[in-house]
């Protein structure tokens, strides 16, 4: 059950009370043309109810006001209620409405009439008919929800690792991005639901406020639906009132400050500050940082280079399924080895440098270049396990999920890892160093010196098992969750 109430403070808020989600909705401020909108809503209700004479009268009255340019910004309280709650009811499309006072009963009745035009049944009852929903009882002492993007399937993998390691903890991942890569996830919704479906948004809100004890926002996005530019901090007050602990996880571009990155990393893709892509990313980054400056929850980053961009951040290591990625395909036994490049973002991963170099080596017969983008994760995993070499990225200065999966599969993994990033790692990273200037020479050497390359590839699975099989991620999250 959802209870809609006018907000006394003119600020929207949500809370869970006695088994119901209570949404405090600010009354709409009077605007020019409001009376015409109310008249149109009443007209639709009268048409649906068969009150044709009154409907004609309302339409004539509204049209006369338009002709007189009646745009004075004034609206009665009844009109404010109609404009504020009538539209909400139409969007929510409930099955039953309980009206608590005569004014809202009138709003509910007109909404039920309008529902007829859409061939929906909407029952309207008075307050006396309300049966209070039972208060929910949390089924776990601790329940974590991570979302709303499940980037590269990481939220799913972290949740599973936590449930294996912490008895009595339940953890879930939420995805709302219509992700084409089809990563596994516990809860999902369409991008349209996330942005504009009030019923879905409020059902999720009710579930979280009643059942969840800990929330981790991903990529600076809110959980309970998002208007353009709305940050994760908009959900924090409701979580705070419910006693739910929360933090935020950043995956990459949303927190990687382009201006600072080009200062610190020699091959930064943001060298041209006037480039349209860089300017858009910089503006979004600056806006996010304004919210981050006042955020008091813990902040996690998924790759070590991102620690440069977040004060007091905690590294939350990427996680992959090492056993599922194990490959029985021998490395560099084919006469012409397969070199795979599968960027998640061509602009950020340096594909403009990778493609011509590997295409030229392919034309010479030295390698077989396999270039893919936008494929399902299951298909990409199969390609990684079958390749001899995997080229990750040449410009960001760190390594991501694809490199972890390539190392776990025992493939020769190639990429640019800045010295400042390698210095932060707890063990020697088995990734062959390459830059935009020497990629061709590096690939030729790896293909020619096959025994040395195989030894490098053989070190990959153990490195990933030690740092990226989920145990390090659990260790990073345990303080936030209150320990084991």
Helix/strand/pairing category: alpha/beta
Q: How many strands, which pairing sense, and closed or not: the largest β-sheet?
A: 7 strands, parallel
Shape: elongated
Unreliable residue stretches: none
- Count of helical segments? 20
Percent in strands: 5-15%
Mean pLDDT: 88
Give the number of DSSP strands. 17
Distance between the termini: 35 Å
- Percent helix range: 40-55%
| Radius of gyration, CA atoms, in whole angstroms | 28 Å
The strand order across the widest sheet is 8-7-6-9-10-11-12
In short:
With 484 residues, the protein is of the alpha/beta class.
Structure description:
- The strands form four sheets. The protein has a seven-stranded parallel beta sheet with strand order 8-7-6-9-10-11-12. The chain has a five-stranded parallel beta sheet with strand order 14-13-15-16-17, with helices on both faces.
- 43% of the residues lie in helices and 15% in strands.
- It is elongated, with a radius of gyration of 28 Å.
- The chain is an alpha/beta fold and 484 residues long.
- The protein has helices spanning 34-49, 52-67, 77-92, 102-117, 154-165, 191-196, 198-211, 236-241, 258-264, 276-292, 322-325, 346-349, 351-363, 377-386, 401-408, 419-422, 439-448, 450-458, 460-467, 471-481, and strands spanning 2-6, 13-17, 20-25, 96-99, 123-126, 142-147, 169-175, 187-188, 214-218, 245-250, 299-301, 314-315, 338-341, 368-371, 389-391, 412-415, 432-433.
- Strand 9, helix 8 (236-241) and strand 10 (245-250) form a beta-alpha-beta unit.
- The chain contains 20 helices and 17 strands.
């Amino acid at each position: 059950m959802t209870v809609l109430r006018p907000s006394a403070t003119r600020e929207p808020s949500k809370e869970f009370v006695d088994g119901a989600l209570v949404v405090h909705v600010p009354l709409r401020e009077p605007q020019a043309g409001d009376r015409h909108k109310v008249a149109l809503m009443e007209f639709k209700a009268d048409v649906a109810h068969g009150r044709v004479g009154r409907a004609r009268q309302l339409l004539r009255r509204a049209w006369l006001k338009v002709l007189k340019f009646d745009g004075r910004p004034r609206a009665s309280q009844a009109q404010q209620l109609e404009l504020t709650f009538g539209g909400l009811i139409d969007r929510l499309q409930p099955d039953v409405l309980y009206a608590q006072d005569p004014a809202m009963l009138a709003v509910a009745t007109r909404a039920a009439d309008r529902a007829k035009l859409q061939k929906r049944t909407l029952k309207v009852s008075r307050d006396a008919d309300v049966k209070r929903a039972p208060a929910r009882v949390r089924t776990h002492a601790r329940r974590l929800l991570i979302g709303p993007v499940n980037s590269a399937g990481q939220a799913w993998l972290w949740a599973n690792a936590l449930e294996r390691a912490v008895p009595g903890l339940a953890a879930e991942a939420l995805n709302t991005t219509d992700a084409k890569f089809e990563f596994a996830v516990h809860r999902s919704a369409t991008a349209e639901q996330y942005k504009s479906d009030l019923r879905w948004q409020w059902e999720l809100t009710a579930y979280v406020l009643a059942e969840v004890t800990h929330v981790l926002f991903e990529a600076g996005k809110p959980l309970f639906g998002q208007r353009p530019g709305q940050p994760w901090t908009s959900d924090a007050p409701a979580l705070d009132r419910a006693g739910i602990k929360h933090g935020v996880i950043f995956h990459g571009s949303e927190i990687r400050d382009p201006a600072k990155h080009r200062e610190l990393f020699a091959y930064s893709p943001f060298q041209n500050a006037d480039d349209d892509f860089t300017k858009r990313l910089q503006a979004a980054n600056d806006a996010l940082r304004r919210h981050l400056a006042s955020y008091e929850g813990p902040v996690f980053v998924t790759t070590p280079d991102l620690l440069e961009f977040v004060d007091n951040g905690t590294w939350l290591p990427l996680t992959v399924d090492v056993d599922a990625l194990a490959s029985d395909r021998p490395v560099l036994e084919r006469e012409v080895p397969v070199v795979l490049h599968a960027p998640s973002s061509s602009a950020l991963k340096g594909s403009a440098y990778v493609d011509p170099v590997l295409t030229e080596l392919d034309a010479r017969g030295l390698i077989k270049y396999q270039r893919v983008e936008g494929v399902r994760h299951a298909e990409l995993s199969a390609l990684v396990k079958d390749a001899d070499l995997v080229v990750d990225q040449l410009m960001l200065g760190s390594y991501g999920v694809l490199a972890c999966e390539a190392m776990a599969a025992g493939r020769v993994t190639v990429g640019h890892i800045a010295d400042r990033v390698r210095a932060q790692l707890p063990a020697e990273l088995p990734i062959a160093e390459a830059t935009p200037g020497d990629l061709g020479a590096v690939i030729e050497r790896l293909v020619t010196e096959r025994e040395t390359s195989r030894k490098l590839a053989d070190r990959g699975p153990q490195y990933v098992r030690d740092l990226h099989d989920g145990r390090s991620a659990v260790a990073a999250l345990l303080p936030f969750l209150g320990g084991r």
